[in-house]
C-alpha cells in the first residue's frame, strides 16, 4: 500500500472528513485495510472502524496481529461483532479466539450460532501447529449416492459459506472420505451421472495430528489448492487451503531464520516488550555462545608457547577461523534447506556427504593454495605458507563434514536442524580450525624457526 495514501487517510481522519474517507476506503482490498490499520494509532482506528464495510473488516481481521485484533474487538458492539464473526471463516475465527482469555472467547462464541460455536471450540482443541489447528470446517462435501444434478443444487445452496469450492469431496453416510472431483469435472458431466462414478478414489489427505510443516510439503509436492483432513477412521473433518499454507511457510521460514541467528522475534511496537525483555530473550543463546567461544581461547592458550615462538602464526588465525566457519555454514544451509523442503532425509546422508566432501575438497584446495601463496609472499617463509595452506585445506574439509552431518544427526534425533546453524556451529568450527592449525604448526615447528 502506498505511503502517500496512508498519509492522506490519516490527514482526513484528523479533520474528520468521513465522506472522503469512505471514497478512499471503497476500492481497498481487505489486505490493504489490514496494512492500513497496522499503521494507524488506536485513536485513528477508532475513527476509521465505523466506515469500513463489515465484510472487508471481517477479512482484514484475519490478517492483523493480536494487538490490532484486540483493539478492534474492544471498539465493536456485540451486534457488530456478530456480523463480523458471521463473515469470517472458521479457521480464521479459531485463530482470532486462540490467544484471547477464556472469558473473552466464551463471550464471542455466545454471539455465534450454536452449531458454528461448537465447530470453533473443536478447532481450538487441536494443537495450533497441527493439521487440525489450521484446517477450516467450511468445505463442500457431497454424499456418494447423489447425481450431478443433485450435487449442483446442493452447491448453489452452500457455496457462499465454503472457503474453497474448487474441490468437491465425496463422503459416505458415515462421513468417510470416498473420493474427490473438481468443479470443472462436475459442471461438464451429465446431470444424471452418479457422483460415485466420477470421483477420483485415491485422495491425498492428511491426518489431524500431522505437523503443519509436513502438510505444507504435501501441498507443495502435489500442487494442491487444498488438502482434506481426516481422523483415524478416515472421516472427513475439514480442509486446509493453500492460502493458509502460505502463512505456514512464512511462519516456519521466519522461525528457522531466528533459530539460525540464535535469537527470537521481538516486537518493539508492543508496549509490553521493553528493552529489558528484549534483552532477556536474546541473552541465553549469547551466554551459551560466550562460553562456547572460550573453547577457542583454550585452544590458543594450549599453544601459547608456539605463538611466542612463531608470532607470524597469529596473522592468519582470523582468516582460517572465518573461512572455515563460512564453509561450514554453506554446507549446513544446504542441508537445513533440503530437510525443510523434504528434498533430503536421513537416508540421503551418505550420498550427500560424499558429494559435499568432493565439493569441499576442491574449494579447500583452491583456498589453501591462495592463502599459502599469500603467506609465502607476505612473510617470505615457504614452510609457513605450507602450514597455513594445509591448515586451510583441512579446516574447510572438516567444516564441510561437520556442517553436513550435524543437521542430519539432529533431524534423526527429532530436533529442528535449524538450531545447528549460525553462531553455534561457527563457534565450534572456529575452535576445531584453530586446533588443526596449531597442531600442524607444532608438527612443522623445526622448519618454521
From TrEMBL:
It holds the Pfam family CBS. It is a multi-pass membrane protein. The keyword Iron does not apply. Residues 135-198, 199-255 form the CBS domain. SUPFAM superfamilies: CBS-domain pair, MgtE membrane domain-like, MgtE N-terminal domain-like. GO terms for molecular function: magnesium ion transmembrane transporter activity; metal ion binding. Keywords: CBS domain, Cell membrane, Magnesium, Membrane, Metal-binding, Transmembrane, Transmembrane helix, Transport. Acts as a magnesium transporter. Homodimer. This is Magnesium transporter MgtE. It comes from Orenia marismortui.
Amino acid at each position: 500500500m502506498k505511503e502517500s495514501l496512508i498519509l492522506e487517510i490519516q490527514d482526513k481522519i484528523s479533520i474528520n472528513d468521513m465522506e472522503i474517507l469512505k471514497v478512499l476506503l471503497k476500492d481497498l482490498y481487505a489486505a490493504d485495510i489490514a496494512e492500513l490499520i497496522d499503521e494507524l494509532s488506536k485513536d485513528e482506528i477508532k475513527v476509521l472502524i465505523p466506515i469500513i464495510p463489515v465484510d472487508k473488516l471481517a477479512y482484514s481481521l484475519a490478517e492483523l496481529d493480536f494487538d490490532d485484533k484486540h483493539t478492534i474487538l474492544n471498539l465493536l458492539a456485540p451486534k457488530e461483532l456478530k456480523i463480523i464473526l458471521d463473515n469470517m471463516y472458521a479457521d480464521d475465527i479459531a485463530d482470532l479466539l486462540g490467544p484471547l482469555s477464556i472469558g473473552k472467547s466464551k463471550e464471542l462464541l455466545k454471539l455465534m450460532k450454536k452449531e458454528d460455536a461448537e465447530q470453533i471450540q473443536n478447532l481450538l482443541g487441536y494443537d495450533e501447529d497441527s493439521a487440525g489447528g489450521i484446517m477450516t470446517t467450511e468445505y463442500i462435501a457431497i454424499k456418494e449416492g447423489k447425481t450431478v444434478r443433485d450435487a449442483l443444487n446442493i452447491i448453489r445452496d452452500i457455496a457462499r459459506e465454503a472457503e474453497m469450492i474448487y474441490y468437491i469431496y465425496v463422503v459416505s453416510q458415515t462421513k468417510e472420505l470416498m473420493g474427490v472431483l473438481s468443479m470443472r469435472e462436475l459442471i461438464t458431466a451429465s446431470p444424471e451421472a452418479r457422483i460415485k462414478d466420477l470421483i477420483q478414489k485415491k485422495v491425498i489427505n492428511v491426518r489431524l495430528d500431522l505437523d503443519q510443516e509436513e502438510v505444507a510439503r504435501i501441498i507443495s509436492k502435489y500442487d494442491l489448492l487444498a488438502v482434506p483432513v481426516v481422523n483415524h477412521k478416515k472421516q472427513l473433518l475439514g480442509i486446509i487451503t493453500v492460502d493458509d499454507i502460505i502463512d505456514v511457510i512464512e511462519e516456519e521460514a521466519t522461525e528457522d531464520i531466528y533459530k539460525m541467528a540464535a535469537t527470537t522475534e521481538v516486537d518493539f511496537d508492543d508496549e509490553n516488550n521493553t528493552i529489558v525483555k528484549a534483552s532477556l530473550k536474546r541473552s541465553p543463546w549469547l551466554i551459551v555462545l560466550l562460553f562456547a567461544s572460550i573453547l577457542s581461547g583454550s585452544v590458543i592458550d594450549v599453544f601459547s608457547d608456539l605463538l611466542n615462538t612463531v608470532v607470524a602464526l597469529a596473522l592468519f588465525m582470523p582468516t582460517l577461523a572465518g573461512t572455515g566457519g563460512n564453509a561450514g555454514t554453506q554446507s549446513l544451509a544446504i542441508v537445513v534447506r533440503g530437510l525443510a523442503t523434504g528434498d533430503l532425509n536421513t537416508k540421503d546422508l551418505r550420498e550427500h556427504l560424499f558429494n559435499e566432501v568432493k565439493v569441499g575438497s576442491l574449494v579447500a584446495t583452491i583456498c589453501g593454495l591462495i592463502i599459502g601463496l599469500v603467506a609465502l609472499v607476505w612473510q617470505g617463509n615457504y614452510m609457513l605458507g605450507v602450514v597455513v595452506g594445509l591448515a586451510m585445506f583441512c579446516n574447510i574439509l572438516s567444516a564441510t563434514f561437520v556442517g553436513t552431518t550435524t543437521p542430519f544427526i539432529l533431524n534423526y534425533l527429532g530436533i529442528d536442524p535449524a538450531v545447528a546453524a549460525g553462531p553455534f556451529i561457527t563457534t565450534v568450527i572456529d575452535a576445531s580450525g584453530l586446533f588443526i592449525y596449531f597442531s600442524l604448526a607444532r608438527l612443522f615447528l623445526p622448519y618454521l624457526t
